[in-house]
Write a structure and sequence with these properties.
By secondary structure, the chain is mainly beta. It has one helix and ten strands, in the order ββββββββββα. It is globular and about 50 Å long.
């Protein structure tokens, strides 16, 4: 047994996380036999991710504030502290803090066997997509 080292909080890159999104890694793989990553992610009010998906899906457990999650069909789900959202493998989605409040969630995901990255990243979402007013 050992206590994991404390890692420095990082500001995620604006290209994928516009508006101020901070990351604290909690658990990362120790070797090739492990593939789970757990992170605490904090969003400033209105901050969001770009469109993305995960090879093996993702769990997001909201610990503070109100989160918004959207999919390519234009659906937006608000998730409150204490609730967990699951996105299946390959589902393109985004997540964000609702307007006017900060939001924090735990992100739990696994790397894909043989893949260099656990996530695919696309374009940034529009204000209309964030607000639920985009036309499909």
């Amino acid at each position: 047994m050992n206590i994991e080292p404390t890692r420095e909080t990082t500001l995620n890159p604006e290209a994928q996380f516009p508006g101020g999104v901070y990351l604290d890694l909690i658990a990362v793989p120790h070797g090739p036999e492990q593939r789970t990553t757990v992170a605490k992610v904090r969003f400033l009010p209105g901050a969001r991710t770009a469109w993305h998906s995960h090879a093996r899906g993702q769990y997001l457990h909201v610990t503070d504030g109100v989160a918004r999650f959207g999919d390519r069909a234009g659906n937006i789900i608000e998730v409150h502290a204490g609730q967990t959202l699951y996105t299946p493998p390959g589902e393109e989605h985004w997540h964000a803090a609702a307007p006017g409040c900060m939001m924090e969630h735990l992100a739990i995901l696994e790397a894909d066997d043989g893949a260099d990255i656990a996530s695919w990243w696309g374009e940034q979402i529009t204000d209309d997509e964030y607000n639920g007013t985009a036309r499909n």
